[in-house]
Amino acid sequence: MYRTNKVSIVIPVYNTAEYLPECIESIRRQTLKEIEIICVDDGSTDGSSDILDEYALRDDRIRVIHKDNGGPASARKAGLRAANGQYIGFADSDDWIEEDMYELLYQKAENQRVDIVTCGFFLEGNYTTMHMDTVPQGLYAGEGMRELREKAIYNLEEKSSGLKASLCYKLFKKDLICEAQYKIPDEITMADDKMCLLTALLECNSVYVCHKALYHYRIRENSIVHSGSAEYLLKVYAVYKYLGELFEHSCFTKNMRWQAELYITELLYKGINLLLGFENKNLLWVDPYWMDKIPVGSRIILYGAGDLGRKYRRQLQSRSDLEYITCIDFSYENLNTEEFTVESPDVVNNYVYDYIIITIKNPQKAQEVKKDLERLGIVDDKILWFNQADFFWRFAQADGPVVDAAE
Questions:
Q1: Mean pLDDT, to the nearest integer, of 360-371?
Q2: How far is 105 from 40, CA to CA, in rounded Å?
Q3: Model confidence over 233-242: pLDDT tens digits?
Q4: How many Cβ atoms sit within 10 Å of the Cβ of residue 345?
Q5: Residue 294 CA from chain centroid, whole number
Q6: For residues 260 and 150, is the Cβ–Cβ distance under 8 A?
């Protein structure tokens, strides 16, 4: 029987059978019951299709669309064509959400009478961090929309994106998101959500920003987003070409264009560091001059065995005036390899050392680790952390946008 729902949730699915049940169950448990769940199987080959069909038999709110693989933009379009909700939400099939997420977003959309509601999220990897849009919480309309658009790509004061790119922790009026998504070429397989969000922001009249984390975004090292590809530069070009079309929009200001060009710079930078498939990763963002802040002859223990920890170790081993002792991590059992020995923090008293250096880029998590180390009895002045700012922010600070006073 046909029914109109308050919210339609579109889930593009491609080979995520391991995580798919957790995602769907978190949406089925929503406190907002007037929803439909549209799962778009984008040519999966790992059993995801069967999982979706089984769920559709168990819950009449679930509809499954099977299609040939066409990428995330193509899958979202297929889901939107089938949706009948007043508002549209999206979820990635390897993530999960808080039970009251859509009730809270729907209430904000209705009470504030806005076209878009956006909230925060938890980044789930080796550790969990909370992230919010870096613009103030509240309603944006009228002149406030211009201010929001000019911080949508970057909030330069915060050295971060103003509005986080993903469509998954947002709620959109149906007509608005359909119009925006249908404009995104299927050939855009990277940053397609950012392009869709920018397109919607140029056309919408109002946005409500909510500083509450409701979505759980899972980091998977083998995901498409985090895998190297020689096609990466072609993907960046597709994004750049579409941005060129947005430049012509009457609401796309000079400031926004400057930020859009900086965004392309960031994509190229990320490609060099992570996504072109180079064996030598992190060529540009790990500043070796952090070592000059350490007294000559110091004996160093590193905390953290991720990419930054490995880069720090390599840099330390190139210096004859500093001594690398070992690497520690509270998750040492999962990180220890033949290539990189990682020990429990409990062993620090077995070594003579001068400093423990935390090799975590996120300052929030680094502070949590510092407190954990202090609880083990390690004194504050023996624990160091160095900010590793992305190099393009230096460019942004030195050569920021110039906006005509009359604009």
A1: 89
A2: 23
A3: 899 999 999 9
A4: 19
A5: 33
A6: no
Separation between Cα atoms, residue 404 and residue 111, nearest integer Å = 37
Q: Which of 159, 133, 139, 163 is nearest to 150 (CA)?
A: 163
Phi, psi of 245 (to 5 degrees): -70, -40
Kindly report whether the global pTM for this prediction surpasses the value 0.85: no
Residues forming a β-bridge with 208:
117, 139
Where do the H-state alpha helices sit in 120-205? 143-152, 174-183, 192-203
Give the whole-angstrom CA distance, residue 283 versus residue 274: 9
Q: What are phi and psi of 124, to 5 degrees?
A: -110, 105
Judge contact between 81 and 138, C-beta under 8 A: no
Which DSSP letter does residue 355 get? E
List pLDDT tens digits, range 260-296.
998 998 888 777 766 776 666 666 667 788 999 999 9
Order of all β-strands in the sheet with 323-328:
342-343, 323-328, 299-303, 355-358, 383-385
DSSP-derived 3-state class of residue 97: strand
Report the SS3 class of residue 358.
strand
Q: How many CB atoms lie within 10 A of CB 90?
A: 25
Q: Extract the runs of DSSP E, i.e. beta strands, from 184-343.
A: 206-218, 299-303, 323-328, 342-343
Give the residue among 165, 394, 131 at the shortest CA–CA distance from 265: 394
* Per-residue pLDDT reduced to its tens digit, 53-86: 999 999 999 999 999 999 889 999 999 999 999 9
Q: What end-to-end distance do the CA atoms of the chain give, in Å?
A: 53
Nearest to 10 by CA among 71, 78, 68: 78
Tokens of 51: 């999982």
**Backbone phi and psi for residue 96, each to the nearest 5 degrees, phi listed first:** -150, 165
Q: Which of 254, 365, 252, 258 is nearest to 306 (CA)?
A: 365
Give residue 13's identity as a one-letter amino acid code.
Answer: V
Coil, helix or strand for 211?
strand
* Cβ atoms of residues 114 and 142 within 8 Å: no
Q: Which two tokens stand for residue 253?
A: 């200001």
